Amino acid sequence: MRLNSRAYEHAQRLIEERKVVLDERDDWSEHQPSAQEENRYIEEHGIDEYARWYLGLDEGQDKHDKGRYKFPYGDFENVHRCGVLAAESRAGQYKHLDIERAAAHLHGMLDALMRMKTAPRGQRPSSARGRPSP
Predict the structure, then answer these.
(1) Residue 124 half-sphere exposure, CB side, CA atoms within 13 Å?
(2) Residue 106's Cα: distance from chain center in Å?
(3) What are phi and psi of 96, to 5 degrees?
(4) How far is CA 21 from CA 13, 52, 72, 103, in A?
(5) pLDDT tens digit string along 20-47?
(6) CB 41 within 8 A of CB 33
(7) Whole-angstrom Cα distance, residue 94 to residue 56?
(8) 3-class SS at 47?
C-alpha cells in the first residue's frame, strides 16, 4: 500500500477551492458514497478519475479493479472532513505512515478552514485576511 499522490494533490486543491464539507468525525458512514454511486461514477468518469478520490493505492491489485483504491476522503464532489479523519485513523491503525501523514495534513487544512469560519473578522489568522469568507 502506498500514497496515491495524485489523489493527495487533488484533495489539497479541492480544500484550497473550499470544495469541502466540514462535518463531524462520525458522519462518514452516512456521507461515504455507496457501491452503486461508486460504480456510476466509474461509468461516467472512468477509473482514473475515480482513483483521485482515494489516498491509498494497493499495488497488488489491478489498475482497473476498484479494490486497488483505498482510503476514500470525499463524495466525488467535495472533501469531507469525516472521510479525511477516517482515512487518517485507519492508515495509522494499519501503519501506512505516508497515507496517515497526508491525511493528517489534509485534516489540518480543514481544521484551519473551520477556525477561519468561526473566528471573528478581526481575529482571523493573517493568512486568511484579504480573502472572502467561505
Answers:
(1) 18
(2) 7
(3) -95, 80
(4) 14, 17, 14, 15
(5) 999 998 999 999 999 999 999 999 999 9
(6) yes
(7) 12
(8) helix
Closest CA to 115 of 107, 106, 125: 125
Tell me the pLDDT tens digit for each residue of 115-129.
988 766 554 444 443
91 three-state secondary structure: helix
Return the beta strands (E) in the chain as ranges.
2-3, 20-21, 54-57, 69-72, 79-80
Q: Which amino acid is at 38?
A: E
∠68-73-77 over CA atoms, to 5°? 105
Residue with grid cell 472533501, as numbered in its chain: 79
What gap in Å lies between CA 82 and CA 55, rounded to an integer? 14
* Annotated domain spans of the chain: 2-117
